[in-house]
Design goal:
Elements (H helix, E strand, L loop, with lengths): L10 E6 L6 H4 L14 E8 L7 E4 L7 H6 L3 E4 L8 E6 L5 E5 L9 E2 L5 E2 L5 E6 L6 E6 L5 E8 L3 E5 L2 E8 L4 E7 L5 E7 L3 E3 L5 E5 L3 E5 L10 E4 L6 E8 L5 E7 L7 E5 L5 E6 L6 E5 L4 E5 L4 E5 L5 E6 L6 E4 L8 E10 L2 E10 L4 E8 L7 E5 L4 E8 L2 E9 L2
Length: 414
């Protein structure tokens, strides 16, 4: 599980909505926490965020926007509430944890109108942001390279969902009146290289599959947003009294699982799995008296039982592989990610042990092998967020200490 560290400069990209004052004041190194080991973790660096930030949402990323990000080894943080309104980007050197460069988009664009906080990244290191200058009538897409240099800008286009691929991006523009979902591929220079039109009712899964719903009972399944000419397979779905389709899960190897929820209950979901030939592989109904949720680890299906505080892992044929109980001594537990595509499982047990408020972070493989389980005492009543990056065998953690948010990088040592 040891990953190779790239020799080129690798930056961590952080999205901030704040007023950029002196970087010497805002990004001073935080040295109050010692380089201590937490069992199998050795702290490599810590980056302290500006005091203006009072909430951070952290995720290394396992969505179609971020599958490529893992290959580029990028980390993205989005603040949910901060002072000011700049929607600025700044980058952290992943090796040292120090500030690399900043990009203040609001002060570079006249009549800047933000759409959201999200910046997108592809494998080549290009960065993309969508915004408006006419309060949402039309939109522009800005592209920067990995050093913050402007590459191109597409102006006066319709609102787009953005999906990065290796050397560019795919824009999805939908029009319900025309019953269209238009997928437009741009290369690294912003030039349109292809355009595909499907029906309006399409869905891009976290794992990459594109589902095209044709009529009431047929789903065309495409490999990804760059492969829309011919579906991998087609499914003829079924309707069930008292159920409605609510979620879709893809396992590596091609299995697509449709999750049906009951109309009058939170439990008792029905799962139906289809193979690459479009035929039904298996189906099951979960216990109606239990609070269940389903997740993917890549090639495995994980079903979490919140009622009994455990989870069970199955293969693509729904063969049970193992079950795992959460720590009973803590008063809450949850998975760190609802989707991973690399065969790892992360979760936190959260609460009080021996009168000390804290959390236990656990990392394991989806074959049941335990890799790490460590307890952290928290000095504020804020739980951390953790994300494991298998490419470097490191864990990233955001935590509140002394009223400030910090990003910590740990190397797994055991």
């Amino acid at each position: 599980m040891k990953g190779k560290v790239s020799k080129r400069l690798i930056a961590i990209f952080v999205v901030l909505t704040l007023y950029l004052v002196s970087t010497n004041q805002m990004y001073a190194e935080f040295d109050e926490l010692s380089l201590e080991e937490h069992g199998g973790l050795q702290q490599e660096w810590i980056h302290t965020f500006p005091k203006e930030i009072n909430y951070l949402s952290f995720d290394l990323g396992y969505t179609p926007l971020d599958i490529i990000n893992r290959a580029a080894q990028l980390v993205m943080l989005n603040p949910a509430k901060v002072s000011g309104n700049n929607f600025s980007l700044y980058t952290i050197n992943k090796k040292t944890g120090k500030l690399a460069w900043t990009y203040d988009i609001k002060n570079k664009v006249k009549n800047f109108y933000p759409l959201n906080h999200t910046w997108f990244y592809n494998e080549s290191g290009s960065i993309f942001y969508q915004y408006s200058t006419n309060r949402g009538k039309t939109f522009n897409i800005l592209s920067l390279d990995a050093k913050g240099k402007r590459l191109f800008e597409k102006k006066d286009i319709g609102f787009s969902n953005i999906y990065p691929y290796k050397n560019g991006i795919v824009l999805q523009q939908t029009d319900s009146l025309k019953d269209q979902s238009r997928f437009i591929t741009l290369n690294s220079n912003g030039i349109v290289t292809s355009e595909t039109v499907l029906g309006f009712n399409t869905k891009v899964l976290n794992s990459g599959y594109v589902l095209h719903f044709k009529g009431e009972n047929k789903i065309e399944v495409f490999k990804d947003v760059t492969s829309l000419k011919k579906p991998l397979f087609t499914i003829n779905t079924q309707k069930f009294s008292g159920f409605y389709a609510t979620k879709y899960h893809q396992l590596s190897g091609g299995t697509l699982i449709i999750e049906y929820a009951r109309s009058n209950s939170d439990g008792g979901q029905k799962l139906m799995a289809y193979g690459l030939n479009g035929k039904l592989k298996w189906d099951t109904v979960l216990d109606r008296n239990m609070s269940m949720s389903t997740h993917s680890t890549g090639s495995k299906l994980l079903i979490e039982n919140q009622t009994e505080h455990n989870f069970t892992v199955y293969d693509h044929n729904f063969k049970k592989l193992f079950s795992h109980d959460y720590e009973g001594e803590l008063n809450a537990n949850y998975l760190m990610s609802f989707y991973r595509n690399d065969g790892y499982i992360e979760y936190i047990d959260f609460g009080t042990i021996n009168g000390k408020w804290g959390e236990r972070y656990t990392l394991m493989k989806d074959n049941g092998e335990m890799l790490l389980s460590k307890y952290f005492v928290l000095d504020d009543v804020h739980k951390s967020n953790f994300t494991y990056d298998a490419s470097e065998n490191v864990v990233y953690r955001t935590v509140v200490s002394d009223g400030r948010y910090h990003l910590i990088k740990y190397k797994i040592t055991k």
